[in-house]
Amino acid sequence: MGVRYERRIFNPLMDWALSTPAVAALRVQVLRACPDDALEVGPGTGLNVPHYPPQARRLRVLAREDRLDERLLARAAQRGLEVQHVRADAARIPLPDASVDALVCTFVLCSVESPRACLSEFARVLRPGGRLHLLEHVRSPRRIEHAMQRVLTPLQRVVACGCELDRDLRTDVESSGFDARDLRCTKSAALPFPASELLAGVATRR
Ligand SMILES: C[S@@+](CC[C@H](N)C(=O)[O-])C[C@H]1O[C@@H](n2cnc3c(N)ncnc32)[C@H](O)[C@@H]1O
Asked: How many separate domains does the chain show?
């Protein structure tokens, strides 16, 4: 499905589905202690914006679109956050090595073409000790649920702009140069199955 489907149907749907109080609470946890001037990858409609720590004044967002979503801009204006748009794909970030203190990535790695390519790019631009604030739905460790995720993924990919339900993102994070000790993987009531297994927290660039 094309860019118009994403803008007119998928984005409003995601804005509704991912803005519940339960998901907002997870966003608050993941963004706690996020430094000013973080780089948020794939910000969509800006649902993270209200949850950055109060001292944050500036946010860089990496998005492929020419124009940022109006809901993101409205949320940033309301929050008093200055937004800078870096127009790029998450797998090719036009920033120097070790130039970023913190990256934010929520519900994005499920739908990129190659999570490993993106994560190694994140590792490249983050300084050693830099933080990757992550919230993603992932593969279930329960066999029957995993089998159901595999069956549903081809349909999900079509209706949800490339989203895959059964990605083992924790392994991808660990093998891309991050310390993932502070990432928690749990079955959450915040999202319904088949997207209820969530990986959340902060991974640190080694
Ligand atoms: C499900 S939405 C999540 C939006 C937002 N991060 C949130 O938590 O509500 C997925 C977002 O990832 C973006 N995205 C997908 N693949 C991307 C890529 N390769 N590079 C940059 N952004 C990407 C999409 O444009 C979309 O905004």
From this structure: 1
| Stated pTM of the model | 0.97
Question: Is there an atom of ligand 1 within 6 Å of 89 CB?
Answer: yes
DSSP state of 50: G
The tokens describing 181, both together, are: 């000790």
State the residue range of the domain holding 166: 3-205
Mean pLDDT, to the nearest integer, of 170-177? 98
- Extract the tokens encoding 74: 């409205």
Out of 31, 62, 89, 108, mutate this one to test ligand 1's pocket (max ligand atoms within 8 Å of CB): namely 108
Judge if the beta carbon of residue 64 lies within 6 A of ligand 1: yes
Domain of residue 185, CATH code = 3.40.50.150
* pLDDT, tens digit (0-9, with 9 covering 90-100), for 74-106: 999 999 999 999 999 999 999 999 999 999 999
Instruction: Give just the sign of the alpha carbon dihedral 95, 97, 103, 108.
Output: positive
Q: Does residue 11 have its Cβ closer than 6 Å to ligand 1?
A: no
* Ligand 1 pocket, residue 138 CB under 6 Å: no
